């Protein structure tokens, strides 16, 4: 398959224009959108959309209890699905929760979410990746600037930009507790990064990403071209949908206030993974779902 979005192949970074639509549903013929016109316009223009108070207080309480029960039960786990901070044994992320835990499987199949992602992607979908991210007060570490698609394309073999991430806030997001930061409009540009991908890169990158991180000149160009950086804040229970190529990152959390979230990636069934474009072996199933995709397809 032709590599439309090459990266980590040249000695110099390059910025390429997007070759895929952001919204896949034909908006001129669709009158059943679960989102308002203003919401769809905002997502298409900015590459992300926050919906505040999407989950009720009762639902949030159940979700919060579930993520901490899972954290406690994995405290001494040696599973590769449990990612720890590079400088401590604190749990940074737990992967594949949509398959390994019945409660989170139900959350992943929440019809309210499915209706939205089906509409944005114009097809049935499946979960490409799921994880819980923990960023405790004082100790939660940063996530460097990156486009998820760059990694999913190079290391997983995701062919096109036809996936959307859903981040469910499970603690209040402030401007100061390591929140998600995004460059609005960056979904329209692909930063082809430098550096050859080694075998099993994920073993280090899930703790601290080094490859697939844009150079400073490219980041400066994006922020100037696209108009700065946005920080969606809000109460626990809000969701943020962001396009797979939207440039984002987060700082470390130096405050007493935790910042935890449930993160799920919905990929179109028409965009299933091929061989990684890095030429390396695919990452494990718990990071990038390949097997039994037809059996986990969800539809509206």
Summed up:
By secondary structure, this protein is α+β, with helices and mostly antiparallel strands. It has nine helices and twelve strands.
SSE layout and pairing:
Layout: E1 14-17, H1 37-46, E2 48-51, H2 57-73, E3 82-84, E4 91-95, H3 97-100, H4 102-108, H5 111-121, E5 125-133, E6 143-146, H6 148-156, E7 163-169, E8 180-182, E9 189-192, H7 202-205, H8 216-226, E10 239-243, E11 248-250, E12 261-268, H9 293-296
Antiparallel strand pairs: 1-9, 2-10, 3-4, 4-5, 5-12, 6-11, 7-10, 7-12, 8-11
Description:
26% of the residues lie in helices and 20% in strands. The chain has a single domain (40-296), classed as Jelly Rolls (Sandwich), CATH 2.60.120. It has 300 residues and is α+β, with helices and mostly antiparallel strands. It is globular, with a radius of gyration of 18 Å. A hairpin with a 6-residue loop joins strand 3 and strand 4. The model has no long low-confidence stretch (mean pLDDT 90). The strands form 3 sheets. It has a 7-stranded antiparallel beta sheet. The chain has a 3-stranded antiparallel beta sheet with strand order 6-11-8, covered by helices on one side. A two-stranded antiparallel ribbon has the order 1-9.
Order of helices and strands: EHEHEEHHHEEHEEEHHEEEH
Helix count, per DSSP? 9
Strand order of the largest sheet: 2-10-7-12-5-4-3
Query: For the CA atoms, what is the radius of gyration?
Result: 18 Å
Largest beta-sheet details: 7 strands, antiparallel
CATH superfamily: q2cbj1_9rhob like domain
Residue share in β-strands: 15-25%
Mean pLDDT: 90
Please tell me the CATH architecture by its name. Answer: Sandwich
Poorly predicted spans: none
Number of DSSP-assigned strands: 12
Q: What class, by secondary structure content?
A: alpha+beta
Question: What is the CATH third-level topology name?
Answer: Jelly Rolls
- CATH class, anyone? Mainly Beta
End-to-end CA span: 30 Å
The helicity comes to: 25-40%
Shape: globular
């Amino acid at each position: 398959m032709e590599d439309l979005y090459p990266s980590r192949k040249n000695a110099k970074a390059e910025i390429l224009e997007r070759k895929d639509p952001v919204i896949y549903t034909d908006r001129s013929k669709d009158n059943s959108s679960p989102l308002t016109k203003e919401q769809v316009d905002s997502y298409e223009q900015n590459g992300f959309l926050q919906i505040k108070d999407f989950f009720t207080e009762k639902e949030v309480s159940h979700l919060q209890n579930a993520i901490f029960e899972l954290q406690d039960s994995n405290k001494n786990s040696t599973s590769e699905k449990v990612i720890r901070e590079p400088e401590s044994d604190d749990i940074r992320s737990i992967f594949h929760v949509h398959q390994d835990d019945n409660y989170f499987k139900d959350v992943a199949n929440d019809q309210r979410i499915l209706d939205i992602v089906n509409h944005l992607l114009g097809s049935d979908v499946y979960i490409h990746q799921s994880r819980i991210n923990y960023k405790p007060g004082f100790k939660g570490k940063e996530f460097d600037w990156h486009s998820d698609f760059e990694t999913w394309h190079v290391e997983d073999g995701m062919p096109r930009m036809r996936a959307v991430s859903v981040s469910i806030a499970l603690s209040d997001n402030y401007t100061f507790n390591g929140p998600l930061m995004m460059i609005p409009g960056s979904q329209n540009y692909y930063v082809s990064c430098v550096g050859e991908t080694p075998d099993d890169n994920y073993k280090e990158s899930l703790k601290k990403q080094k490859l697939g991180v844009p150079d400073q000149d490219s980041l400066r160009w994006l922020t100037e071209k696209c108009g700065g950086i946005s920080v969606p804040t809000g109460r626990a229970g809000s969701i943020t949908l962001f396009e797979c190529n939207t440039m984002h990152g987060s700082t470390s959390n130096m405050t007493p206030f935790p910042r935890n979230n449930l993160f799920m990636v919905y990929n179109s069934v028409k965009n299933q993974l091929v061989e990684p474009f890095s030429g390396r072996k695919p990452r494990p199933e718990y990071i990038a779902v390949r097997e039994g995709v037809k059996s986990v397809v969800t539809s509206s």
